[in-house]
């Protein structure tokens, strides 16, 4: 009979939440255990014991960030989920452009890039998983005929490329007005393509 993974301790959960708040401010790329431990009221030894290694801690933080991202994206589509990809892109962009989401999105961008340049270890699979997550969210907004049609996946992929490119540009420049106009232009093209 397979053994279930042990339930994380309350202290581990508490330190994970504190480390996640720290990562939202300081990032993960140059994470050093000593300053992190000091900031969260622990010691490097305790962190290594609870997370088994620095990579284990990084994996836990990436999973925590991904869970936050998915929960927030899920709320974008609830409870009055619009039908159609253009409506989804409009709604998701509004969420992405909100200033209060920038810390999470900067952490996401950092983890995404590290997953591409360090495909093994703690970062392994993060970028691919987020692509699948986002494509799944966008597919959920499409009507069955749009989603399952010949070009449904192509339209989702284009929508995701526009959103991701605009998000990276926004994080780099903070030029929300210009990027919102660009996304609106793409929305017009999506709507036009859907009507043909």
From TrEMBL:
Q: Which PROSITE patterns match?
A: HTH_TETR_2 (PS50977)
Q: Does the keyword Amino-acid biosynthesis apply?
A: no
Q: Which residues bind DNA?
A: 32-51
Keywords, ordered alphabetically: DNA-binding
Domain named HTH tetR-type is located at 9-69
**Known InterPro entries for this protein?**
Homeodomain-like_sf (IPR009057), HTH_TetR (IPR001647)
Name the UniProt record assigns to this protein: TetR family transcriptional regulator
Organism of origin = Streptomyces tendae
């Amino acid at each position: 009979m397979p053994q279930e993974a042990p339930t994380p301790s309350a202290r581990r959960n508490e330190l994970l939440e504190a480390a996640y708040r720290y990562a939202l401010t300081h990032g993960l790329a140059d994470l050093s255990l000593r300053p992190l431990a000091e900031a969260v009221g622990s010691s490097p030894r305790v962190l290594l014991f609870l997370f088994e290694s620095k990579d284990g801690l990084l994996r836990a933080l990436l999973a925590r960030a991904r869970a936050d991202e998915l929960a927030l994206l899920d709320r974008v589509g609830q409870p009055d989920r619009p039908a159609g990809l253009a409506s989804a892109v409009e709604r998701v962009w509004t969420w992405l452009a909100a200033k209060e989401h920038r810390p999470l999105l900067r952490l996401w961008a950092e983890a995404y890039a590290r997953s591409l340049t360090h495909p093994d270890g703690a970062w392994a699979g993060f970028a691919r998983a987020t692509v699948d997550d986002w494509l799944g969210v966008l597919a959920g907004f499409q009507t069955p005929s749009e989603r399952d049609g010949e070009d449904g996946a192509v339209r989702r992929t284009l929508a995701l490329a526009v959103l991701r490119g605009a998000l990276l540009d926004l994080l780099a420049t903070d030029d929300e007005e210009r990027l919102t106009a660009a996304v609106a232009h793409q929305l017009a093209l999506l709507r036009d393509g859907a009507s043909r």
